[in-house]
Amino acid sequence: MTVTLITGANKGIGYETARQLLELGHTVYIGARDTERGEKAAAELGARFVQLDVTDEASVRSALATIDAAEGRLDVLIHNAGVLETTLDGPAALRSFDTNAVSIVRVTEAALPLLRRSSNANVVTVSSSAGSFWAVNNPERPEFNLPLALYSASKSAATMLTVHYAKSQPGIKFNAVEPGTTATDMTAAFGIGRPAEQSARVIVGLAVLDESGPSGTFQDEAGHLPW
Ligand code: NAP
Q: Cys staple from 141: which of 85, 118, 135, 204, with CB 3.0 to 4.6 Å?
């Protein structure tokens, strides 16, 4: 049985990814910062719940300790929790980078001992094409006109951290993914996006890679995405 942890999985793309991986037979831990929302989501899906605020060291350590005690390992880690700040000031920058980028370090470091006990350890970072320097500088791409400096910059950092982890942890796959523009609470103000079910499929594609799968890539559903 594959043991999978998804951060920020109480709603949106993370919730749908959990649903699809449960269908594939994974033991899924829904990480959510809010116990009520997380327990409700886990009960609906038939998943397990761990309280996990990706900005809180103690919460992250406790969540991984819970999984360690129950499973003794972690096979798949999906960094999905994220925020999109539309204001541009110091506090919003700290929140953006803490949730979207620093959390990658916080959760990965806590998970590494468990991932090293897996025979097919696999980490998927839900990043964004808004963090691609190529897309943001390409007038043909929608990201060119996206005035989301903090979201973009924090997702660039998330992608870069994924690349560095892929290099420093050769026994573990680390890939970053752009799931596709999706109608969730994050994008509700813009009124854009496709159903989460479709975007979750892109994440699931990376979450089910076998031992010979790639590491250190940045992909969307069409394949490799330029940095
Ligand atoms: P969403 O519906 O707003 O879901 C975001 C999730 O992250 C929620 O479960 C939220 O929990 C959780 N979260 C936020 N801060 C957290 C924290 N400190 N600790 C733990 N969980 C936290 O947005 P979504 O569209 O599904 O986004 C999921 C991921 O996809 C994000 O990383 C996003 O950047 C990425 N993405 C989305 C799109 C898109 O078009 N929607 C495109 C590219 C990439 P609460 O319910 O407690 O707030």
A: 135
Q: What are phi and psi of 221, to 5 degrees?
A: -70, -15
Catalytic residue positions? 151
The whole-number pLDDT of residue 110 equals: 98
Parallel/antiparallel/unpaired status of strands 223-224 and 218-220: antiparallel
Query: What spacing in Å lies between the alpha carbon of 108 and ligand 1's midpoint?
Result: 17
Q: Report the amino acid identity of residue 111.
A: A
* pLDDT, position 49: 98
What is the whole-number distance in angstroms between the Cα of residue 185 and the centre of ligand 1? 8
Give the sheet arrangement for strand 173-177, strand by strand.
Answer: 48-51, 27-32, 3-7, 76-79, 122-126, 173-177, 218-220, 223-224
| 3-class secondary structure, 48 | strand
> Could you give all domains of the chain from N- to C-terminal order, each with its CATH number?
3-224 (3.40.50.720)
